[in-house]
Design brief:
Order of helices and strands: HEEEHHEHHEHEHEEEHEH
CATH class: Alpha Beta
CATH architecture: 3-Layer(aba) Sandwich
Number of helices: 9
Low-confidence stretches: none
Strand content: 15-25%
CATH topology: Rossmann fold
Shape: globular
Mean pLDDT: 96
CATH superfamily: Alpha/Beta hydrolase fold, catalytic domain
Number of strands: 10
Helix content: 40-55%
Radius of gyration: 17 Å
Distance between the termini: 23 Å
Largest sheet: 8 strands, mixed
C-alpha cells in the first residue's frame, strides 16, 4: 500500500465561542478515511489537542489502524489549550476548572454534535488526555457519567485530590479506562511541585479495581514525554474502537 495514504488527512479548524470561558476556543476536527456525512462515527475528544496531533501523531496512527487493521473509523476532536491557563483549567478545584467543564459538556459537545455526524451517547464518546489532561478527562467522566464512560489516560496526574474523589465512589463498573504509566515517572516536575506519578497511578489503579472499573492498566519503562505515549497510542485506541 502506498505510504502516502497514511499521511493524507482532512482536518477542519473551528473556533467555538464560549460564554463559560469568556473567550473562543480553537479546536481541530479530524475527519477519518472514507468520511461520509451519512455515517455516524465514534468521537475522540483530546485535551491538549495541538499536542495530540503534532507530537502524538494521532491522525497518522488512526489512518494506520483503519487501513491496516480494519479498526472502526472515528472523528477526532483536538481541543486546544492556552499553556498559561492549562493548569487552572485541567486541575480539579482550580480557578478555571468548573468553567472548562461547563464549556466542554455544554458548548463543545453541542457544537460538534450539531455540525458533525458523531454519536451522541456516552458509549460513542472517548475522552483522551496526557498528564493533567488525563486528570480532567477522568473527572469529566466522574462528574458527567450520563455523557462519558470511556477515558484514555496517558500518565494521568492522578494525585491526592483525584484519589480522594475515587475513595468517595462505590461502583465504577460503568467506566472503561485505559491507564498508561512509565516506570521512570517517579519524579515528574509540574507547576505544583515534583510528584511520583508512578506511585500515584498504582494507588489509583487499586482504587479503580476495588470499584470494578473496566480497567486496562499498562506499566512499562518510559518517561513523562510524548515519545513514550505515542508508541502506546495505537493499542490504546484499539481498545475503544
Amino acid at each position: 500500500m502506498d505510504d502516502a495514504i497514511y499521511y493524507k488527512r482532512t482536518i477542519v479548524k473551528e473556533l467555538i465561542p464560549s460564554e463559560a470561558l469568556g473567550e473562543s476556543r480553537p479546536v481541530r476536527v479530524l475527519l477519518p478515511p472514507g468520511y461520509q456525512e451519512l455515517t455516524t462515527y465514534p468521537v475522540i475528544y483530546c485535551q491538549d489537542g495541538e499536542q495530540f496531533f503534532n507530537f502524538g501523531r494521532i491522525a497518522t496512527i488512526l489512518n494506520h489502524l483503519v487501513y491496516d487493521e480494519g479498526v472502526q473509523p472515528a472523528i477526532i476532536v483536538g481541543v486546544d489549550v492556552d499553556i498559561a491557563k492549562r493548569t487552572s483549567e485541567y486541575t480539579p478545584g482550580d480557578s478555571r476548572f468548573d468553567a472548562y467543564c461547563q464549556f466542554f459538556t455544554e458548548e463543545l459537545l453541542a457544537f460538534i454534535e450539531s455540525k458533525y455526524p458523531v454519536g451522541a451517547t456516552a458509549k460513542d464518546r472517548i475522552l483522551a488526555g496526557d498528564s493533567l489532561g488525563g486528570t480532567v478527562s477522568l473527572h469529566l467522566a466522574l462528574n458527567y457519567r450520563s455523557l462519558f464512560c470511556n477515558v484514555l489516560s496517558l500518565s494521568g496526574a492522578f494525585l491526592q485530590p483525584t484519589q480522594d474523589r475515587l475513595v468517595d465512589e462505590t461502583d465504577l463498573s460503568w467506566l472503561k479506562l485505559y491507564m498508561l504509566i512509565g516506570t521512570d515517572e517517579t519524579e515528574v516536575t509540574t507547576k505544583g511541585g515534583s510528584f511520583d506519578f508512578l506511585e500515584a497511578n498504582r494507588v489509583a489503579k487499586q482504587l479503580f479495581k476495588e470499584r470494578n472499573c473496566q480497567l486496562t492498566y499498562v506499566e512499562k519503562p518510559g518517561k513523562h514525554i510524548w515519545g513514550f505515549w505515542q508508541k502506546e497510542l495505537p493499542e490504546a485506541l484499539k481498545l475503544f474502537l
